[in-house]
Write a structure and sequence with these properties.
alpha/beta, 434 Repressor (Amino-terminal Domain), 12 helices
Length: 278
């Protein structure tokens, strides 16, 4: 049996894989037995250990549970997030940890469909556009698409969070990837609006100066009912935990919802755009 020697110094993914192998061998487990415990194939375990496949958030969390280190300071999940920090805005990796546990998610987006609601095809077009501009590598683009998929696990969590999404009209007016991509994306939005734990609204252009936000913003309510907000610019993201700073943002979000069109009107607008892509 050929055994590939691992060098953790080759990069963060290599270090992750080497740690996984070391943890497995310390317990005397084969790749098959670890795969059975984690819910992945032996081939998948081998690919992550040797760096041929990038770990996902679900994989890292499963490893933490199996190796009994979930909730500790040095988890595979934390290592996974540090790996992704290289392709994400500052502050965003920490935000992801809170988002995955939130009981309520209020989001406002401008220009693009938010990650939680993107189809894989739409997410791929966005990620690959960065490669074409020279702003990222193909590997980084693939990681961004994988992160979008991992984030969407919150939608099928039990119990699922309450998600209130207000999209600036520019999100649905901006064509990306051609008619087929947009038609599927509009269908995804309509399916999202039908869920019992969601509300989807559109902030129309005619809101003008009544729109309280110029940039995307998210407000999270955690299981202990504490709230925090996340906003980002082109350069970095900022996670705000100070209640005195978060409450005004939450208030502005309520004002945004009051001025935005209803979900019924949003659904009608999106459905009309979807018909236009046929």
């Amino acid at each position: 049996m050929n055994r590939k020697e691992l060098n953790p110094e080759e990069g963060p993914e290599a270090a992750f894989g080497a740690r996984l192998r070391s943890s497995r061998e310390e317990r005397g487990w084969t790749q098959e037995s670890l795969g059975e415990r984690m819910g992945f194939s032996a081939t998948h375990i081998s690919a992550v250990e040797t760096g041929r496949k990038i770990s996902t958030l679900r994989f890292a969390r499963s490893a933490d549970v199996v190796f009994g280190i979930a909730g500790t300071e040095d988890t595979f999940e934390r290592q996974w997030r540090e790996i992704r920090h290289g392709v994400l805005l500052e502050g965003f990796p920490e935000f992801l940890g809170y988002e995955s546990r939130a009981v309520e998610i209020r989001l406002y987006e401008v220009g693009v469909i938010p990650g939680l609601l993107q189809t894989p095809e739409y997410a791929t077009v966005l990620a690959e556009s960065g490669v074409k501009r020279g702003a990222s590598t193909p590997e980084q683009a693939a990681e961004r698409v994988a992160i979008v998929a991992d984030r969407q696990a919150v939608l099928v969590r039990t119990p699922p969070p309450l998600i209130l999404a207000v999209l600036d009209e520019s999100c649905i007016r901006r064509p990306l990837g051609g008619p087929d991509v947009m038609r599927d994306q509009f269908t995804r939005l309509l399916e999202f609006a039908e869920l019992p734990n969601t509300v989807l609204q559109i902030a129309p252009f005619e809101m003008g100066e009544l729109r309280p936000f110029d940039l995307p913003v998210t407000v999270l309510t955690l299981p202990d009912r504490s709230i925090l907000s996340y906003a980002e610019s082109a350069q970095r993201g900022h996670l705000e935990r100070d209640i005195n700073s978060v409450v005004p943002i939450l208030t502005a979000y309520h004002q945004l919802q009051a001025e935005a069109c209803t979900q019924a009107a949003a659904v009608a607008m999106i459905d009309q755009l979807r018909k236009g892509t046929s």
